[in-house]
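User: Structure tokens for both sequences below?

Assistant:
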Amino acid sequence: MPKKNKIFRISLMGGLIGLLTTNPRKALEDNINELNAIGYSVVQVKVHKTTNLFVWALQVLVLLCTFGLFTWGGGYLVIFEKEIA
């Protein structure tokens, strides 16, 4: 049977706020359960880190401007597949 693939990015917060309020396991579990409910299965989960120098510099700048409280962080890339009729 043919399969349909979907790549889903789960973003996490960085900084002190992210450290105190973000639960990576729950974020993964909630998103996986949501897509499982519509028929998708997880194929692979990969850690997503910023490799672009400009984006990394912007993240550091935001972190400095917020006195270490907030920046956007990495997260996960989750690859799903679903059999289609």
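Moving on to the next sequence.
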Amino acid sequence: MTLERVVVVSFRWAASPAKPREAMDLAEQLTEQASALGARVCSFGGYELGFVFDEADVEAAIELAARTVHEARMRPVSKAGVAVGEVAAFGEAAGSTALSWGEPVVVAAALARSAQPGEVLLDATVPGVIDGTLTVVPSGRDLTFGGVPRLSYSLDIAHAVSQGEDALYATNPPEPAPRVPTGSFEIIELAREALRRGDTISLDAALQHLKVTGEHPEVVERLAGVLAMTRGAKEEGLRVLRRAAAQETREDRRARAVLAYSVGLAAAGRTEEALLESLSALALTRAHGDTSGEVACTTFLSQLSEAAGHGGSAARWQSVADRIADQR
């Protein structure tokens, strides 16, 4: 049996079960639109319709999801989920149908069910989610598959539709506010969440993407250390993170390297050492006027204080983080 790596888009709609003809008309309209983009029906069920795209057509898949959920005439199709992965064909493909089975079919359908009306949820492994080229925000409604938590992200549909297809994948995503950069702290937040939840899937996706593109080698090194820790190799992971912090020669990047090492120390149960390293990272961000970095450091200091049983300190650090964030 041949496995094929694909993109799956699953739609949920609110058509009345008492009006099956209306539901079928809607399904036929969706199928025509998807077929025009090279997709085929891969799954069908009550209130649900899934399409499979070639992996190279991920932009077309997300554009279809955003446009369909947004359009008034397709209003009953109120939400969607998108995932990538390998599928196996069920029987022979015929015309616009290629029934399939595999993880992305299950994940996309689960995301569509979990989404709010008017929302498109993306699995963390969808290209463009982790590296920041898609306009997304964490959904806060992450799912669990095989006992492993999976992060999901909500697509900014209004922005995407108002700007057109080019807005889906931005070459240079805009920063939320001007600042002197020490580099994005998003990777640190991802690492912290992964260590807390034991989620290696999101980190693996980010690491593989960066390895392929050759971008940000310093981030690749830190991700490798974090992944080693999530898989139980704590000492190996700490060595990688400590070396990355010690060898970082650029002052404007050192803060995130030190904070990454602090995250690793905390995961290894060395809370007091993690507190000291976080304070060092905070001092570096303040020296370079990086408010985004300050928020990341003070938030992590609050969490570390709470974990160490210092509730008063935790509240004070969180207050500082909130105040800095409000001033951005």
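User: Anything stand out in the second?

Assistant: Residues 170-185 have pLDDT under 50 and may be disordered.
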